[in-house]
Amino acid sequence: MSKCEDQVLAKRIGAKIRGIRGNLSREEFVEAIDRIVTPQSLYRVEKGLRKASDKVLQKISEKFNKPLSWFYEPDCETEAIQAEFSRLKILEAIQNDPSLLEFFEKLSQRSDLKIMFKQVKDLSPESIKRLIRIIRAIEDEEDENPT
């Protein structure tokens, strides 16, 4: 996992902990989880400045009836941000090729190919260009030879 992904995860977990804490003060929440963190540490975790330890997450999940996996599940907002990040990365990679830009705009409307956008985060700009060119070649082939 990259440093950026670690930060996103820390912020997501922090927001979920803040949501669980609700109207409790940090001190009351720390007391509820058997003082395994300090209020200051809880503040840093909630703000995403520090990743919560597995021990802290386990204790919170036990006390507030949440499965441990819940902390790691993305919410709709996070998925939308990640999708937009991927789309921008693709656009940056193909910005100097008007034909690829035009093709990508059409391609990005297809729900069956949206999953592909999530896969570009680890690709170089040149690899992204190659991938879009390959998809365009396949699409052109299918248009010429419909089944």
TrEMBL record:
MF annotations from Gene Ontology: DNA binding
The HTH cro/C1-type domain, residue ranges: 37-71
InterPro entries: Cro/C1-type_HTH, Lambda_DNA-bd_dom_sf
SMART domains attached to this UniProt entry: HTH_XRE
Protein name as it appears in the record: Helix-turn-helix domain protein
Organism: Pseudobacteroides cellulosolvens ATCC 35603 = DSM 2933
